[in-house]
Amino acid sequence: MNPEAETQIPLLPIHSNKVLEEASQTMGRNVPHRSSFKLTDVTVNIPSSKRRPLVSEGTTSEENLAPSRWSTIEFKIYYAVALIIIPVMVWIPVSLSSSSHPNFPFYRSKLSDGWIMGRFVDNSDAQYRTFRNNIPILSIAILFHLFFKYIASVMPAGTQSVAPPKLQNLSPSSLRFNLAFSLVTIMLLHGVNSLKIMLILFLNYSVAKNFRGSKLGTVLTWAWPVVRELSLAGLVCGDLFSLRNRRRGCRGNQRINGETATIDLTSRLGPIITFNDFMWQHRYPNKQPPTSTRIKSYIFRFIFSLLTMECILHFMYVVAIKDRKAWVGFTPAQISMVGFWNLIIIWLKLLIPWRFFRLWALLDGVDPPENMVRCMANNYSTMGFWRSWHRSYNLWIIRYIYVPLGGSKNLVINTVIVFSFVALWHDLTFRLLAWGWLISLFIIPELLARWLIPSVKYGHKVWFRHIGALGAVANILMMMGANLVGFVIGAEGMKFFVREVFGTVQGLKFLLAAVAILFVGVQLMFEYREEEHRQGIYRRC
């Protein structure tokens, strides 16, 4: 299969208004109304998640789907293990966070006064603290934005519009209002540094405008320094879209302008949306009232995630323990739980802002991709994990880096290049570069296993599921190790953990127990995905 045909996002054609309205009503909403809750409803819906299974995925028809195992004796044993182990996984970090613990004084200064049951709160993560402390202000900003945009849209036009004819086809005052709101937001957030941001935008716009039809324009687009980080994705997308269309002679409906470039900058707080998708949704918005089922369910998901994070920060001070390296005297099980819950917090601290700003976009009639499809603890495939984690960025990487490099034709080399880029995109540190190289290395065993034991050939065998579960356990251990190095304890902390696990009898016993527990967890993950298949849902993650 041609990787470009599978992953490249086509340009939206120009249709009649009726066709566009019908497409707008159905785009990304392909799940029919259900009268009752089902287990698979736990996973957030994503567009194109329902299709006929591919032969390469080991399933060719509904008749080949495995019968449900939820009520079998095997899975009842798994339930019993989960009911015992999950509370223990919660109790370990809670007990380590007690004020009576000998290590508590080492990280007490990192804690703040909380609001749940008189406990302290671990608000020491700088990234999440910035968002958490400003949730009230951001909520007011949403109300102001939506209210004044509504007022601007219903006000009668006093004079004849001087906007270009094609721009007048956009929803009333939509882009102009977003331009003004974006400029105000940039000035409030960055002050004098707003001039630097506007200069970057101007230079970026100049590249797209003045190097039409030239390969030099593409080179200059990618020549921006890494310090642009999040803004890079949107600006590169807009520039390449414009340059490609100018080579093809496309104008009018597919034009780039300074207004959308400015609006795009503020969207870096949320999921990444391609330039043509952004413009198309502004031209034909599909706003849903806050009382609609889709909006209400998404609000519930956001609030539930936010409260989950609050409970973790009030009862598990694992971020402070990690920052102060206050794990002296911890057992391997305790160290592993500090690392595991740090990874859960990293997942939540990204998921919550992304869902907050995606909710803002949905209320405004723009439907960006869902960034987090699955829970961090519901992943066993290295490749599947990166498809579901920061999904919009993954789609951007595939379209603008992976496919142009040749896709699966040079899989190993392209994987190293992609993850090196992702690491440097996050920050210019050796720790993150090591993380990128480890991820690239750990993808190879999974690819090799899929080649040696393909599901199409062996998927019907009784032993296949259990061998796959053992391989998935190895995947999970490698992924956790790489992410602990890159985002939690670093290389030095990982050395200490490895020494405690492999250098002591207690550590080896813990490792065997961890493998057995992860094996149970993977079997539950497998069956959950089988349940999705029975419901006609096929995700590659």
From TrEMBL:
GO terms for molecular function: O-acyltransferase activity. The chain crosses the membrane at residues 77-96, 135-158, 179-202, 298-320, 326-348, 400-426, 432-453, 465-490, 510-528. It is a multi-pass membrane protein. The keyword Transmembrane applies. InterPro entries: MB_O-acyltransferase, MBOAT_fam. Its main location: membrane. Belongs to the membrane-bound acyltransferase family. This is Glycerol transporter. The lineage of its organism: Eukaryota, Fungi, Dikarya, Basidiomycota, Agaricomycotina.
